[in-house]
């Protein structure tokens, strides 16, 4: 019998909205946008062998920066402390397509190591990330999704910015709308996914 891999946490990723934002002036005054990324959650973000951040999230962030005509900078920050780091101004915005973790782990790979070694029986997590990191790799040959997807109509994946920075929020939202309209978002999406994760 195959081991249990996971029930999916999200059936589809919702729109790239933005929460309330930080303190920068209007977008014309923004010269650089520092993004917080985890660096260990493929295909959304990971460190390449060269030490650079690669994946869907940084590619989308880069397209947003291009639309805003600002320099993109990536700051690696563990997901568990990312909100605190955002509030401490270590970066301007957080882009991290992470799902909820029931148990506390230092990173997603630790979840897989426990699952693969038999220290846990199942993991509830984002289906896209689970497929990319385990199911579609040789180490996932004895694992599969079981049961129905756990759906939450109110779930959203968002870019986070500090509360109160409406101008930065609006500038990022405008750039997201532009890359959706001009095809850049879809071009990035097709590099990583065979389906549209944006949602309706």
TrEMBL record:
It comes from the Bacteria. Residues 1-24 form the signal peptide. The keyword Signal applies. SUPFAM superfamilies: Periplasmic binding protein-like II (SSF53850). It holds the Pfam family SBP_bac_3. This is Transporter substrate-binding domain-containing protein. Keywords: Signal. It comes from Paraburkholderia antibiotica. Residues 32-196 form the Solute-binding protein family 3/N-terminal domain. Gene3D superfamilies: Periplasmic binding protein-like II.
């Amino acid at each position: 019998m195959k081991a249990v891999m996971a029930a999916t946490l999200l059936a589809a990723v919702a729109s790239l909205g933005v929460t309330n934002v930080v303190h920068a002036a209007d977008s014309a005054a923004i010269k650089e946008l520092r993004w917080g990324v985890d660096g260990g959650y493929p295909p959304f973000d990971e460190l390449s062998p060269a030490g650079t951040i690669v994946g869907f999230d940084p590619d989308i962030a880069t397209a947003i920066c291009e639309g805003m005509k600002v320099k993109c900078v990536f700051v690696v920050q563990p997901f568990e402390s990312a909100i605190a780091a955002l509030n401490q101004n270590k970066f301007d915005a957080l882009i991290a397509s992470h799902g909820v973790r029931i148990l506390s782990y230092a990173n997603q790979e630790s979840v897989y190591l426990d699952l693969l070694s038999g220290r846990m029986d199942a993991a509830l997590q984002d289906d896209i990330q689970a497929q990319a990191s385990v199911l579609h790799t040789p180490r996932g040959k004895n694992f599969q999704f079981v049961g129905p997807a756990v759906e939450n109509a109110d779930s959203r994946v968002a870019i986070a910015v500090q509360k109160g920075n409406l101008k930065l929020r609006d500038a990022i939202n405008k750039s997201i709308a532009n890359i959706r309209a001009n095809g850049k978002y879809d071009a990035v999406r097709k590099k990583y996914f065979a389906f549209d994760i944006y949602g309706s």
